[in-house]
Every structure is written in structure tokens, then in C-alpha cells.
Inverse folding.
């Protein structure tokens, strides 16, 4: 496969801790329900999975936010639960509700039956990656992604979203052997899944440990971090001569940042509870940092959105501008964008990040 | 008012960082739905507020867990939302759902109308405190409590529980002046409320900042911590010659522990994400620490519950046994006990904490 050459490499450079003319910005869930054009495509597709499994629809919605905003990266439109769905758990999305599995994994027999799925079951995802990469035509890089082994396990055991994680934690504490077995299968499946996305054209990959932060100290290290590390050990470092940066985002993982910083990956996602300056002191010497505006800021007025974006950029501190590697920041939200976000406010945010981060670099050049 | 002399002062001594023969233990929401005798009283009361506003029922359910378990403290049975209810917001609890306010506070007019309520509106709470203190008859100390100013504001603006805090954060970011005004009123109301509980017989007070952890770094300090400090500044330090320890619990606040540790209070509650040994190094020199078992551990089997309790005690490290003050631990869960908890498992936990914490002290004495 050959694709058009990349025109905007700020995101990939920032992942590798190289200097960039501005701070690159993209937004988790940037293709989604807050955009009227997304809702229109979603209505045509009939269902969320109808949208996610159709290559043309997935390509269309992935590119929608790039038409509106000067984003520095695209992210595959898909769901974190495609892998357990391919394991035969029967994923569905009822309208207005979250995901649900018809066959949750709650006993020894169900865990024993788990296998790394045949990647052919996920062909629709890899086809979408290739199609999106072609449609991007080199405009910005394409990020592939997966849920982390622990985050997938949460949904696989609970069968749906949860507010107390009672079932999955009951298994963790009462049958740690089963939980470890499930996490091994998940880790190997996630690694195969991300490698196939890389082969299909993903130029960076991100692991979403959305529920790592609900674990107790000690349990996080054994049941989440260790399996994220197992995924990373199996990932391709490069594809067709291009290095593939790997980003790990642990929502609510700020307390464990030093330990997460030991992972073999290029960048760490941070939520809004983390002070970027402190994170930079702790792990910025060897990891790019991605984040971390509270998505609720986008409900404020323009002047306040700009002020909060500036505050996030300033909290990271002076950008690295020289040759070689140095502290590096990729602007993002600290969690997915809300479906209630006014689309105009997103434009304002993206432009404010570019303008202020260029100012920061210019004022440094004048020093 | 005179009450019977206290027979078990381990909890109060631990709050003041004095040595105790075992690690005192109590459990957040220890009087509640997981107990069949509670559900029986609740059925007689007809509704949650019917239970909370009736002095006899409130006394009965507060004492129920003490009949089953060797707990070292009792906590007033009430709700954190009594204060906004007394402000006229109209609290109700639909069966099987969380709390709901009939008149949420969402605009300038509603904020301007907020006042510190007449404490006579909350007389039922103070009467319950006195009644419980009498019924305890000196067995263990009684803890009074309130929600923090920010946590109350979350419910007052959202009108109910929330999973994204969109409305309250929209007000925070778009009208910080209104949010500060609301938090001032809340802080002064909480201070008056806790002082009245102390006068009625509460021997310690706890502020629950249940939703402090949802705020961004920076916003937490300005909109939650500053107003918890405002409450603490107004609290009575002692009553009738007895020092009244003050405990602050910020769920999800582990990242800000050093800053929370600067509060003028005796003890800090910690959730399960925090490593007790690290917390002890950071703030254990001037604060007692309370926590922090994941409540979901109580769904495991006996041997595993014991092992996890031991792990929490061991993570805090060697108990202070000498004269004077020193590092001090009060065992608790990291959040309220689940309504699905098997009552037998709670007995096992409480006894394991007492047994292992005595062993720790004995092995030190032998060194």
C-alpha cells in the first residue's frame, strides 16, 4: 500500500518529542454526536454499529470534523468494544443508552472459552483504516485505537456501563486467577488488533484505559498497567519505514503517573485533574504529554474558553523549540467531547490553541 | 447536656494522632440498606426522608450496625443534602433512585435568593444527634457530618446525581461569580450546621467532598478546597472541654493531598486509589489518615477479605505506640459500603482489622 505523503506532521513530531511550529491539537471523540452532519450520517446508517461497520460511513464521519476545524490529527471512527464483540459477546447499542453485551463473561466456563478472535472478524475496522487513510490524502496523520485489556474486561464482565464496577471487581478480588486469564487474552487480542490497524495504515495508536482509575492502588498495577505493558511489548514499532508512536491514556491515573511513565510508549494522555507542569517534571523528560482541558469548558463563553485553553498551554510551560528531543505537548481534552457541545466553540478552541502556542514560541524566539 | 462517659476512645485518640491498642474502624454508610434490620425500619418509616427526619428511627438505624459489629465509632444517620433542602430546594428520594431537588439553582436569580437557612429548619437533625448520643450511652463516639460546599453545589445545580457535571461546571466556567456566591452561602451554612451538631452532642465532624475529584486542577483549589477551608475556619474546636476532631474526605482528591494536607483539620479521609504509605510520608506528620479499602473487596471470600484488610493496614506501616503524637490510621472503606454487601462479611472485616492491628502493635513491642 502506498499513501499520499503527509502534509502536516506536527502531531507525529510532537509524539516523538520533536519541536513543532505550534502545539498540535485533536479532540477525543472529535467525530461524533455534537456535529449535525454526524447525526445525519448516523440516521442514514440506521444504528451505531451500522455506522461503525460500514467503511464508507466510517470514513465519512472520521473526516467530518476536519472539514470544520484545523485539527492536527484524525482518529479512526470506531468503538472500544469491537474486540470483545469479535470474541462473540454480542455487542449492541440501544438508542440513547450505552453499549450492552448479550453474553457477559461472569464465570469460569465463560472465561475459559475466551480466545483471541480471528482478525478477519474485525476486517471492517482495518478496511475503514485504509479507506480513511486514503481519503485523508496526507492532510493529517490517522490515529488507530483500542480499549485497554482492563477496560475491555470491565465491559465484558459488567455487560454494560457501571457506576460501581461491582461484578468485575468481585471477580478480581474473589477469582484473581480468572481475571488474569481474561486479561492475558484481552492483551494479546488488543496487540493483534492494533498491529493490524498499523498494517492497514494507522500512523499512531492509542490505548484507552478509560477505567484504570477505578482500581485500588496495587490492583491498578497488577490488573491494568501490567496488561497495558503486555500489549505494548507486542506492538510494531514501525511500519514501512515510519515509526508508529504509541499513546496510553489512563483516565483517573494521575496518582500513578510515575509508574505509567515507565511504560514502553511515546506519549501519555492525561485527564484534567493532572497539573501539566508537574506531569512534565515527573515524566516529560521521556514522554510526550497529551491533554487535558475539561470538556465542560466548551459550554462557557468564547472569552472563557480561550482563557482556559491558554491556561492549559501555560501550565505545560515553555515549548521545546531547539533541535533534538525535548518536553512536548499535544493539546486535547481530558476526556471525550460532550454530545451537547456547541460546534462553534470547538472552532474557537482549536484556533486559540494554535494562536497562543505560536505566540509562546515567538516570544521565546525574541528572548 | 451531660452524657455518659466514653468507654471506647480509640477513634478520638486516633484522630488526635495518639497511640491506641488497635486501629479503630468504622465504615462509611455503615447504617444502611445492606442490613435487613435497616430495610425493615425503612419500610416502617415509609420513605428515606421519613426515616431521616424522625428522631426515633434515625436513632434506631444509627445503632443497628453497632449491635452486629465491634465498630469504634457511630455516625449520624442522615443525608448530605439536608442543608440545601432547608434552603427550600425541595429534596425528595424516588424509590430506587438517587436524590432529586424540585427547584435546582441554575440562574442568577436563584443564586441571589440563596441564604444560610434558619437552623431551626434542621432541628430534626440536631435532635437526632442528641438522641443518638444518649442511646449510645458512651459506647463509642458519635460523628456528625455534612457535604462540602462544592459537593452541595453539584447537587443544587444539577438537581440530581450526574455523570458529567455539565450544568454545574457550565456555571463554574461561564459564571464563576455566581458559583463563588453559592459556595460562600454553602460554606457558611455548613459551618453553622456542623457547629449545631457539635452543640447537640457530635464528638467529631466529617466533611464529605464527594465530588471534589471531578474538578480540574486549579478549579479544585478555587472552588472546592477554598470553601472547605472557609467551613473549617468557622468550626468550634471544642465543646464542653472536649476537643472536636474534624475530618475532611475528598473522594478522588489523591493528587492534591499535599494541598489538602494544609487544611486546618485533624484527619483526612482517603479513597482506595491512594497508597497509605505514600500518604503517610506526605501528610502523616500532621494529619491522621482514614481509609481506604475498596468496598468491593467485601464481595470476595473470607480469606481474601482478610488478606486485603491486612494489606491496607500494612500499607500504612508500623503503628505509633509511644507517648505523644505520631502517625495515625483509622480504618475505613474508601467510599460508602454497597447495598449489596453480605452482612457477615462486614463482621469478618471489622474483626480482622482489630486482630491484625493488635498483632502489629504486639510484634513491635517484641522488637
Amino acid at each position: 500500500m502506498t499513501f499520499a505523503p503527509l502534509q502536516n506532521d506536527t502531531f507525529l513530531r510532537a509524539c516523538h518529542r520533536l519541536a513543532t511550529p505550534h502545539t498540535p491539537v485533536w479532540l477525543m471523540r472529535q467525530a461524533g454526536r455534537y456535529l449535525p452532519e454526524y447525526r445525519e450520517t448516523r440516521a442514514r446508517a440506521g444504528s451505531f454499529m451500522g455506522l461503525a461497520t460500514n467503511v464508507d460511513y466510517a470514513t465519512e464521519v472520521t473526516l467530518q470534523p476536519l472539514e470544520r476545524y484545523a485539527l492536527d490529527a484524525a482518529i479512526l471512527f470506531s468503538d472500544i468494544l469491537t474486540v470483545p464483540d469479535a470474541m462473540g459477546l454480542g455487542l449492541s447499542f440501544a438508542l440513547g443508552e450505552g453499549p450492552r453485551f448479550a453474553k457477559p463473561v461472569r464465570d469460569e466456563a465463560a472465561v475459559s472459552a475466551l480466545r483471541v478472535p480471528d482478525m478477519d472478524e474485525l476486517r471492517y475496522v482495518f478496511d475503514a483504516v485504509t479507506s480513511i487513510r486514503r481519503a485523508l490524502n496526507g492532510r493529517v496523520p490517522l490515529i488507530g485505537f483500542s480499549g485497554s485489556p482492563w477496560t475491555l474486561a470491565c465491559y465484558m464482565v459488567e455487560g454494560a456501563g457501571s457506576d460501581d464496577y461491582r461484578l468485575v471487581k468481585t471477580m478480581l478480588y474473589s477469582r484473581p486467577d480468572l481475571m488474569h486469564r481474561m486479561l492475558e487474552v484481552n492483551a494479546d487480542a488488543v496487540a493483534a488488533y492494533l498491529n493490524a490497524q498499523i498494517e492497514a495504515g494507522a500512523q499512531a495508536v492509542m490505548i484507552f484505559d478509560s477505567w484504570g482509575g477505578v482500581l485500588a492502588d496495587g490492583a491498578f498495577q497488577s490488573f491494568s498497567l501490567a496488561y497495558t505493558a503486555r500489549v505494548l511489548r507486542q506492538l510494531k514499532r514501525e511500519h514501512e519505514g515510519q515509526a508508529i508512536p504509541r499513546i496510553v491514556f489512563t483516565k483517573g491515573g494521575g496518582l500513578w503517573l510515575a509508574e505509567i511513565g515507565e511504560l514502553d510508549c511515546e506519549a501519555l494522555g492525561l485527564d484534567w485533574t493532572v497539573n501539566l507542569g508537574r506531569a512534565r517534571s515527573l515524566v516529560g523528560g521521556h514522554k510526550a504529554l497529551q491533554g487535558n482541558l475539561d470538556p465542560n469548558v466548551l459550554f462557557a463563553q468564547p472569552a472563557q474558553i480561550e482563557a482556559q485553553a491558554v491556561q492549559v498551554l501555560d501550565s505545560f510551560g515553555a515549548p521545546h523549540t531547539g533541535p533534538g528531543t525535548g518536553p512536548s505537548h499535544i493539546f486535547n481534552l481530558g476526556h471525550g467531547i460532550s454530545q451537547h457541545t456547541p460546534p462553534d466553540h470547538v472552532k474557537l478552541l482549536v484556533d486559540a490553541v494554535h494562536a497562543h502556542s505560536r505566540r509562546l514560541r515567538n516570544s521565546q524566539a525574541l528572548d
Remarks:
- The mean pLDDT of chain A is 96.
- Chain A touches chain B at residues 163-166, 169-170, 172-174, 213, 215-220, 252, 254-255, 272-275, 292-294, 296-297, 299-301, 304, 308, 311, 315, 334, 338, 340 (CB under 8 Å).
- The domain at 10-366 of chain A is CATH 3.20.20.210 (TIM Barrel).
- The longest strand of chain A covers residues 142-147.
